[in-house]
Amino acid sequence: MADLFTQEHDRASDEPQVTHLGHGIFHIKHLASTESCLRRIDEITQEIPMRHMMTPMGYPTKASMSNCGKYGWVSDLDGYRYSERDPISQQPWPALPREFLQIHQSACQLANIPSFLPDACLINRYEISQSMGRHKDKDEQDTSWPIVSISLGLSAVFEVYPDNPEISPMKILLEDGDVLILSSSSRLWAHGVKPIKADLLQPNLTTRYNLTLRRSH
Ligand code: MD6
Ligand code: FE
Q1: What mean pLDDT value characterizes the chain?
Q2: 193: Cβ below 6 Å to ligand 1?
Q3: Cβ–ligand 1 contact at 182 (below 6 Å)
Q4: Contact of 180 with 142, CB cutoff 8 Å
Q5: For residues 6 and 132, which has the higher predicted lDDT (pLDDT)?
Q6: Which of the residues 3, 23, 82, 159 could staple to 71 if both were Cys, CB 3.0 to 4.6 A apart?
């Protein structure tokens, strides 16, 4: 029995593993280091605390949010946009940490897509049962740049709804350390996150973070 478990562990090695799911969707496992990313998130959110943003529809986002990089994604009753300052404190957003840029660059290399310099990173935090509704990311000036997303902590089921009715919707399990890239035809497809579930094997883990690295301008 012990041997079986050992083999299982060996197979699930910590080497990054990239899968092209088609349509420019890349799922890369074991790429991000949780500990160093969480440390950077702590530093950023000490400067600019996570908050629920008001949507133009008049209700707050379920996940709480902060940003780093030159631009941050913000939402209020007037709509969605990228801003150089935190609308609450009027401060510029903290710089994009080197660790995030390195993961972004490695992800582009592994997926074999041209790397680019992100100027915005939205930080989403989910507590258990929080979700993200179906949406398309189209507030960027040039929506042909890919979006590179890093998942940390609790797992999420990420659903993608292709524009083409002949392509079936996809469910992608995003686990701690995973990176997901939406590029080319899938870049503007709708997607959402199902309510986050507790992990019975890690009862102290109650949070999921998602970082999306974008070129907004
Ligand atoms: C999340 N992610 O994973 C939310 N958008 O919590 C996104 O909305 C997303 O992961 C565009 C590209 C990749 C993403
Ligand atoms: Fe999105």
Answers
A1: 95
A2: yes
A3: yes
A4: no
A5: 132
A6: 82
Tokens representing 37 are 């990313």
pTM for the structure as a whole: 0.94
Q: Which residues contact 161 (CB under 8 A, 6 or more apart)?
A: 134, 169, 189, 190, 191, 192
136 pLDDT exceeds 70? yes
Q: Which domains does the chain have, with CATH numbers?
A: 2-214 (2.60.120.590)
Is the pLDDT score of 209 beyond 70?
yes
Nearest one of 81, 66, 177 to 121, comparing CA atoms: 66
Q: Give residue 14's pLDDT.
A: 85
> What mean pLDDT comes out for the span 63-71?
98
Maximum CA pair distance of the chain? 60
The rounded Å distance from CA 124 to ligand 1 centre is: 9
Rounded Cα distance between 94 and 192, Å, is 27
| Mean pLDDT, residues 43-67 taken together | 97
Choose one of 104, 147, 176, 216 to mutate for the ligand 1 pocket test, by most ligand atoms within 8 angstroms of C-beta: 147
Q: Which of 121, 139, 191, 215 to mutate to test the pocket of ligand 1 (most atoms within 8 A of CB)?
A: 191
C-beta of residue 121 within 8 angstroms of C-beta of residue 48: no
Q: Find out whether the beta carbon of 158 lies less than 6 Å from any atom of ligand 1.
A: yes
The reply to whether ligand 1 has any atom less than 6 angstroms from the CB of 132 is yes
